[in-house]
Amino acid sequence: MLGEMKPMKYLKELILINMKVSGGDISLFLRYCPLLRRLTVRASILTSDVHVCGATLVLEYLQLHYCDLTESVINISAPNLSEVKIDANPGQLWFNDVPRLVEAKFMHHFACEVSCITSQLQKLTISLSYSESFLTNSFPQMPNLKESTIRNSSLYKHGYQK
């Protein structure tokens, strides 16, 4: 998508909608936009693994929503990240160093890969379809959770709006 990119040192928010984006493209934006605080990728095709990683990232908000991930893996290690909104299947989402993450919105799957962030979460939103089992024996404890919303996403497919 990008080819050769020049630094955009003042860019603080980037929104990509209906794009074909590689993990390398996202890495370039993170590298060449040192003040980027909000990154949104919606209704796009992610063509390769996404690595949102770096000790110097100032990124606070990450949204990968309604994206075609196919076989891609999302690896997140961002010390300033405080909020995520992500669609991913089990095995596709991995968190490493996200000490400030307090708000998470997951669509369709709340996989065991996120158990490393549950102790700090204060707000959790999960959208599930009818066929998904939510309450299992392996559901993690969340001692700091202050607000939780669980939505039946299949209702939205049938025209329900709120």
Automatic annotation (TrEMBL):
- Domain annotation At1g61320/AtMIF1 LRR: ranges: 5-136
Per its UniProt entry, which superkingdom is the organism in? Eukaryota
Q: Which SUPFAM superfamilies match?
A: RNI-like
Which Pfam families does this one have?
A: LRR_At1g61320_AtMIF1
Identify the PANTHER family for this entry: FBD DOMAIN-CONTAINING PROTEIN, OS02G0105600 PROTEIN
Indicate what this protein is called per its UniProt record.
Answer: F-box/LRR-repeat protein-like protein
Supply the source organism for this entry.
Salvia divinorum (Maria pastora)
